[in-house]
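Hi R.,

As promised on Friday, here is the backbone we talked about, encoded as structure tokens. Could you run it through your design pipeline when you get a chance and send me back a sequence?
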């Protein structure tokens, strides 16, 4: 987390902001605290999106999608939102756990039992989301948080209704993350449905188990080419886990297993709950999560240089200078819990 800067707001709605969690193409994510003491992630759009009527329509739909998803799966719930503010924002619960990519970068690949628990938990979450008629569309390591009692899938900001009433793309435009999006999503041809999320899940599991993305490339174009035309690199995987991941990464959407099948093959009849809970994470990650939770209890906002504590350039309700919205990008830098 980074300290607030001089141009950042100090409050937004009822929330007191404590620092910056990250930023991306759509805006910024702040760590905040509610009047009751709950820690939240507040996403605010960049000013140039605020005047785009089409974007604002999408933003309202995406907030609704996130609310619906939060009611069905274990994720960061939407607590509050103001799509009509000068700079629209949404506040979600803060999930106390590092993103998968930070955990793997810092501690190496997860052991197979943890990978199986991770996959079963995410597959069950996707099954619930798909039953609502939603597709996540951006399942990737930075949108998977590792908590003490299981994985949490976040950032439903670019989810869309499968009936097509909330399309977020124009013809030929793909939305997602190169290297983790499905071939059909990379081609931008429309018709992206639940099997696309399964493909992304397979790529996430390959990364979690090996510390390497299954489709290498040093540019977005190279990554997308590999996703569409080449087989995944699964050399460090073996046995039933490799077979399952390879099935998820099939080029043909119809050949991929359904999320329910993925969960069943990983967890059996006991489901994800039988694999997660206390002890599913390696000890080093348990220590990291616990330490971060204690730090948050004592975190207070710091004034920007030259400003008294608790004051900023924008009074409550006037809107901050920028932040993420319906489709925030992955935070740049450590941002565990930014959901």
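Update: got your reply. Pasting your designed sequence below so it's all in one thread:
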């Amino acid at each position: 987390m980074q300290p607030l800067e001089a141009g950042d707001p100090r409050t937004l709605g009822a929330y007191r902001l404590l620092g910056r969690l990250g930023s991306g193409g759509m805006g910024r994510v702040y760590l905040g605290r509610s009047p009751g003491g709950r820690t939240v992630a507040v996403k605010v759009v960049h000013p140039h999106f605020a005047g785009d009527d089409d974007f604002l329509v999408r933003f309202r739909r995406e907030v609704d999608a996130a609310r619906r998803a939060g009611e069905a799966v274990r994720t960061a719930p939407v607590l509050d939102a103001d799509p009509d503010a000068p700079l629209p924002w949404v506040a979600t619960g803060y999930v106390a756990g590092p993103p998968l990519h930070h955990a793997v970068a810092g501690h190496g690949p997860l052991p197979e039992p943890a990978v199986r628990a991770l996959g079963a938990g995410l597959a069950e979450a996707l099954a619930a989301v798909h039953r609502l008629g939603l597709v996540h569309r951006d399942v990737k390591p930075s949108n998977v948080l590792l908590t003490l009692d299981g994985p949490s899938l976040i950032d439903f900001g670019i989810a869309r209704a499968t009936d097509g009433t909330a399309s977020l793309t124009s013809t030929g435009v793909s939305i997602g993350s190169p290297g983790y999006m499905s071939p059909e999503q990379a081609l931008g041809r429309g018709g992206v449905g639940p099997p696309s999320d399964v493909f992304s899940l397979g790529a996430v599991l390959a990364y979690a188990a090996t510390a390497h993305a299954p489709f290498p490339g040093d540019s977005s174009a190279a990554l997308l080419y590999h996703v569409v035309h080449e087989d995944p690199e699964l050399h460090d995987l073996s046995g039933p886990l490799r077979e399952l991941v390879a099935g998820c990464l099939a080029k043909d959407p119809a050949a991929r297993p359904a999320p329910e099948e993925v969960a069943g093959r990983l967890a059996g009849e006991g489901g994800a709950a039988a694999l997660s809970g206390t002890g599913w994470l390696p000890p080093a990650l348990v220590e990291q999560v616990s330490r971060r939770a204690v730090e948050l209890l004592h975190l207070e906002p710091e004034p920007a240089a030259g400003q008294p504590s608790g004051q900023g350039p924008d009074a409550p309700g006037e809107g901050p200078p920028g932040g993420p919205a319906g489709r925030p990008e992955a935070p740049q830098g450590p941002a565990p819990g930014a959901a």
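One thing I noticed while checking it: Confidence is low (pLDDT under 50) at residues 160-174, 304-336.

Thanks again,
M.
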